[in-house]
Design a protein that fits this description.
Blueprint: H1 94-112, H2 117-136, H3 160-200, H4 202-210, H5 214-219, H6 226-232
């Protein structure tokens, strides 16, 4: 029978010393090192080349402050969750909200002006009203800790960041309101021109509506001027 190897042997599969009962296998550490079996990773690992835990917090979750990113202060980094300098518009501001309504109404009015003129007339009128009212209203200054009420009850002056945010929101509001006003005006002009054409050449449209045959409809083209027969007239 071969002699049992000593405990100093680097072979992890070596049998225990003679006279010692068998024990479950576990990694053997180099001499002079003390391991920890609690699984917390506070001690050295089973390999001498395994690095220990870093003490500089590497790999830990970074701390978040209320003034950076989206932090606890909500969008824009404001400590109170309000509008920060990075936001282009405040949905709680009536002026900016009406400017967005004007843009949407103007675009849809321009679209329906070529198909359903009654709907285009309604949307165009609403878009023009919202655009004009948004241009006449002032954009509110976003509230913040520096612009809060003073101890004597008077409102404190706005901070430079709040002034910049208000100027940016005001420019965005004006751009949206002007765009909505232009689109609504174009839609109303298209609808008005259509009503004007129907009024001026009412005889042609009545003749075309009363015609029972294709030949009768073609004869109604004589009620239109020559330049408009190819555009408004009945085609063969």
């Amino acid at each position: 029978m071969p002699d049992r190897q000593s405990t100093n042997d680097s072979n992890p599969f070596a049998p225990p010393p003679e006279g010692q009962p068998d024990q479950p296998w576990q990694p053997r550490l180099p001499e002079g090192s003390q391991g920890s079996d609690d699984g917390s990773g506070s001690g050295p690992g089973w390999s001498s080349s395994q690095p220990g835990r870093s003490s500089d917090g590497f790999g830990g979750r970074p701390e978040r402050s209320g003034g950076q990113g989206g932090g606890a202060g909500g969008p824009g980094g404001g400590p109170d969750g309000g509008q920060g300098p990075g936001l282009r518009w405040d949905p709680t501001d009536p002026a900016q909200r009406r400017a967005r309504y004007a843009v949407l109404s103007g675009m849809w009015a321009f679209f329906f002006a070529f198909f359903v003129q009654e709907v285009a007339l309604l949307l165009g009128a609403l878009g023009a009203y919202w655009a004009i009212s948004a241009l006449r209203m002032r954009t509110k200054v976003p509230e913040g800790p520096e612009g809060a009420a003073a101890p004597d009850g008077a409102a404190g002056p706005p901070s430079p960041a709040q002034v910049v945010a208000a100027a940016t929101a005001n420019r965005a509001k004006q751009t949206a309101a002007i765009s909505g006003l232009v689109a609504s005006t174009l839609a109303l002009m298209i609808v008005a021109s259509g009503f004007l054409v129907h009024l001026v050449y009412r005889d042609f449209y009545e003749c075309r509506a009363d015609a029972l045959t294709k030949e009768a409809q073609l004869s109604c083209n004589d009620l239109l001027p020559k330049p408009l027969q190819d555009t408004l007239g009945v085609r063969e």
